[in-house]
Amino acid sequence: MSMSEASQDGVRLESVLGTSLQAFEENLSQRTKVPPERIVEFLSCSNAELEQQARVIEEVERRFGILLDRCEKEPDNLGPFMRALDPKAFSRDHDWRSLVLALSRQGSGYELHKRVALTKYLEYLSFRKELLNFICSRRKQPRQVGKLARDMRKALGQPDEASAASLKETDAFGMTRVAAMPMASDKYVRLPERETVRMKLRTGESLQVFLASHRFVLRARAEELELVDERGVSHRLPAGRSSIGRHVDNDVMLDSRYQEISRFHLIVEREEPATLRLTDISSFGTFVDPVRLPR
Q: pLDDT by residue (tens digit) across 25-67?
């Protein structure tokens, strides 16, 4: 099947593939957030309906995870595996369904593109599930209901005059700021999304960091790093590069009750005894004191 023929599925692959695999990945990265019209739909649903949607997403994530594991062993069969999936497993948001279906019909020369597409779609699902859980959790906290409404208006580009000033700090569910930020503290700023930031942290020093709205402390020991959560639970970070999040495949797996923390949230690497490399890969952000950031 040619790429021009694939356009009958509602998306022209040549306009998405770009000139390189990196360009393709960057294009799909713009499709990992929930569109405003879907947020409006979520707000009209009951908590029970939202929780059911979140459970469905968890099942889809599980099946796709199995698929990706199988493709590690049989990389040449990724196309047939994708074609065997129920098209309804893919959302129509951002043309995901037609894009993946068209891509699945391409030949073996597009195996890396197919893997990138599935990975990025999982990021979209993860963000969507965390948004569902975020709305549910705020509704259950009466003092947060008003802020939830303001955050949603901001996400839709509809700030009202009364809340305009307070909303300047928040671009909820956007590419650079998220609704969780005001819950951390006004003095903290979000790390750039998917960009590595170097910070000084000498042996014996501590760094306070918020994963979404949850406070953690990073402590530099002589031979290792220690991460302590807001409940006082301590996690040892292995030497070198460590991933942190709720998924079992992380080096540090956090409690599943931290619903706003992403499945894969933060990458920490000790570059030398006094320097850390932090990379935020989350949906709801990682926040630090700006004085700790390089000038």
A: 888 888 988 888 888 788 888 888 999 999 999 888 888 877 7
As a whole number of angstroms, the distance between CA 272 and CA 24 comes to 34
The model's pTM? 0.50
* Burial (Cβ within 10 Å: 0-12, 13-18, ≥19) of residue 260: buried
Q: Which of 168, 164, 170, 165 is nearest to 182 (CA)?
A: 170
* Token pair of 43 as six digits: 């707000």
Token pair 């998924």: residue: 247
pLDDT of 277 above 80? yes
Report whether 16 contacts 113 (CB < 8 A). no
> What's the one-letter identity of residue 89?
A
The domains of the chain are located at: 3-140, 143-179, 189-292
Cα-based angle 127, 131, 133 (whole degrees, multiple of 5): 120
Chain segment 238-266, per-residue pLDDT in tens:
778 899 998 888 889 998 888 888 888 99
Whether domain 189-292 has CATH 2.60.200: the reply is yes
One-letter amino acid identity for 127?
F
